[in-house]
Every structure is written in C-alpha cells, then in structure tokens.
Amino acid sequence: MTKNISIAIDGPAAAGKSTVAKIVAENFSYIYIDTGAMYRAITYKAQKANIDLEDEDVLFKLLENTKIELFPGDNGQLVFLDGENVTNEIRSSEVTNYVSIVAKHRLIRAEMVKRQQEFAVNGGVVMDGRDIGTFVLPDAEVKVFLLASVEERAQRRHHENIQKGYPSDLEKLKEEISTRDKIDSEREVAPLRKAKDAIEIDTTSLSIQDVVARIVDLAVERIATL
Ligand code: CDP
Ligand code: CDP
C-alpha cells in the first residue's frame, strides 16, 4: 500500500499557498488544512469580544475555550468557530490586518501547533501556513516554500477582490501585505522562515497548474523512496 505522507507548504501572504495546497490534497485524496484560518478565527472572536490583541494571557484563555473546526467545502476549507460558520467573516480586512498581532504570542502559537499536529497524526495531509515545515510538521516528507514578489502577490489579491465584486486598492494591498510579512518574519516565536530542507519555488511567473505540478512531482518522487 502507498504510504500517506505529510506535505508542508509555507510562504508569505498571497503566495498561492492555499490555492495550490487544496489542489495537491485533492490529487492524493489527502486532507487539506489551512492553518492561517485558525489564527484568523481566534482573531475574529477576540475582536468581537473587544479583547486587547496584545494581551496574551486573556487571548490564551479565550482560545482554550474556543472550538475551531475545519471541514472540506466546494470552494475551499469551511471554518466553524464554536459551531458557527465563519468562513467568510474571517477573511475581512479587519481580521486580515490584525491577525499577525495575535499570531505573534507564544501561548497562542503553542496551542495552535498542538491542535494542528493532531490533524496530521495519520499523515495524508497537506498543510499550509508560515511555520509548518519548521515547527508544526518538522518531519514532513515534502516541504515547500512558496515565494512571489510583493507586486505580484498584491496583484493576485486585487484581481481576486475585483472578481468577487469587492472594493480593492492595489497600493493599499501592497502596503498591508508588506506590513504583515514584516511582523510574521520578525516575530520572536516561530517566525516565517524557509525550513532548511524545504524546496523554494518562486511562483511570480508561474501559473497555479505549474506550481501544483511541481509539488505533485516532488511528492510522487518522495513516495517512491519510501
Ligand atoms: O492567506 P493569507 O496568506 O493572507 O494569510 P493566512 O494564511 O490566512 O494567515 C493569516 C496570518 O496568520 C498570517 O499573516 C500569520 O500572521 C498567521 N499565521 C501564522 O502565524 N502561522 C501559520 N501557520 C499560519 C498563519
Ligand atoms: O494562501 P495564500 O495567501 O498564500 O494565497 P492564495 O489565497 O492561495 O492565492 C492568492 C491568489 O493568487 C488567488 O486568487 C490565486 O488564484 C492566485 N494565484 C495565482 O494567480 N497564481 C499562482 N501561481 C498562485 C495563486
């Protein structure tokens, strides 16, 4: 029987992680876990409760009493917070622009990593985030670090917003993405880094299909060695 492996996909905002991770997971009939959604969900709950996002202890207590569930959906992963579907709400700019503040806290990260590792106990998982190859799944059989220029990443988000009929400002997106990348890369705990054994793919001029094909090839090659 073919062994079920773990595939870790990391990289900065809008590098294409969730789009390609979902397709790669479908390809192998693996589960797909978008870990960013978990940080977004707790940020959304904290904002609704008017909690100071710098207050690590209060946030941690909140997280301990919070159920975050992830389910496969037709258009990507569905996110349930304490039983309520918040898939769309957690993508708001209010959440996007503050999630990195919540994600820098040590206690929050430790709890999230624990929950994420539980999803992956049996292998057969494609997980995307910022610290998957470095901390969450350090033994993942395939690790990929996706990159793209900030201009390209802002363009992708801009295009996505326009397609969905949302208002969008390209320059503002560029600024927001750069700020988030800076906080994510400079935080003390599990900063955004390429794992030593991760394969870097610059997706700036690659299509989604190109990136998926590269990762599927890497996974097939790795499975063949097991
Ligand atoms: O999809 P996008 O790249 O905009 O972001 P995301 O993957 O939804 O992640 C939102 C934020 O959560 C990131 O900017 C990080 O601050 C945090 N995050 C993290 O710290 N570690 C992860 N494994 C995943 C996300
Ligand atoms: O998960 P992450 O924030 O890294 O990015 P994403 O939400 O998967 O992708 C951001 C946008 O870029 C989506 O609209 C994708 O369709 C698009 N994309 C692209 O145009 N070319 C790629 N090679 C990858 C993603």
Automatic annotation (TrEMBL):
Coiled coil: none annotated. InterPro entries: Cytidylate_kin, Cytidylate_kinase_dom, P-loop_NTPase. Keywords: ATP-binding, Cytoplasm, Kinase, Nucleotide-binding, Transferase. Residues 7-219 form the Cytidylate kinase domain. One of its GO terms (biological process) is pyrimidine nucleotide metabolic process. It comes from the Bacteria. This is Cytidylate kinase.
